[in-house]
Amino acid sequence: MIAGANTDLFGRRWFLVGGNLVCFVGHIIVGTAKSTNQIIAGMALTGLGAGTCQMAAFALTELLPNKWRHIGVVLADLAVYITVVIIPITARYGYFVGNWRTNFYAAAGLQAASFVGLLLLYFSPAHPLGLPYAQAFAELDYIGIFLFIAGFLPILMDIIWASSFPSTDAHVVVPLVIGSVVMVGFALWKTYGNAKHPLTPNNIFTSSRGREFTAPCIALAIINMFYYSSSIIWPTMVTVFYADPKDWKRAAALSLPQGLAITLGVLLSIFGSKIRNWQWQQAAAVTIMVIFGSLLGLGNPGNQNMMIAFLIISQVGYGRAIYLCIAITQMVAQAVYLAISTSTVTKWTAKLVPVAALGAGVTADQITSLMGLVGTANFTTTYDASVVTAVNGAIQKANERGIQGIAYTSLAFGIVGIIACLFCKDVDAKMTNKIEMYIENSKMAERNSHH
What we know:
The chain has 451 residues and is mostly helical. The protein has 21 helices and no strands. The longest helix is centred in the last third of the chain and has 39 residues, at 385-423.
């Protein structure tokens, strides 16, 4: 949010170079971690760097003719497609074999290569708006940056804490109230403030009554939320319903459909300029994603093949929709879904497990100790097979409820996303040979308005 708007003041180069460097450091910290706190610190750094690296999708496409933008975005994320296919496999291998650190060392190596490549080859205009650095720093929207951070962080904390505390607890209520009030202040500042270079310029968001930028932004947010919902629902199904916890190879194989389906959907982007009617392509892809993504809420231990089919169709829709939306427009979601899943599963586990245990012969005075052992290695050695089977069945039912909660929530968001797609404008007239920006180390650099 903060880096994106300000690259127009300071240029893209150092944001991308710096982002890759920060990610590299973060991966090394996690890979060498000796404690949980070190892992948290490394992941925080990685998240910070990744936020600025997201600009690559826009930095690359502005160097291409507008009619190739959708293809440029796909190329910018080329490594992502490989990652979403192989990482679920290498992650499970690392967890069970004990060599999980290799995943982070590999990521660090790729970030280092990206850092060096950008440092040596990517020279975007340093002053896209023609402002000297001193003036740009003086005219930064400091108030907007402060209000956004001060409002967004408490809301994010509230979402996380909602999975651990009751909704009436101060941990949940206070951050929500503070964050909401500050975000209202942020909205008022954006509307009535006098920042010379606002973080969220009103003219962009209100252009064509919101159809040119705001509607695609809403659609983009919803599309990403569906990716996170599927990335929680499907691994949960695999772990709880379809694979023995000790059989990591089967679990790894079952993780393949999601990544492969996304890759297939992405590759369909090459037909975008032939089909045209971009907004209808977008609406169709999002509708497919929403319908079949929501149908994952029907998952249970007995319908694996049906769920794989729904997952593949939904993720093909996601892969197609995400790049269409970026072509049109150019983390909160995961926290929301995890909070819903955790609270729902906890609630239903407390309801279903005692009943199942009592039915299997456990006495009422043993329920408290049994609940304390559920999910631990000692559970299966403390109780006989009939109790373990009954309790595991109850846990599966509780997880079904959690999956349904995520699916139904994503459906509500998805409907909003479909409506947003219907308001998007067709961009076919803008798919021309025009190039918005040239790198400074090319023969065409003199065509840039500012350097």
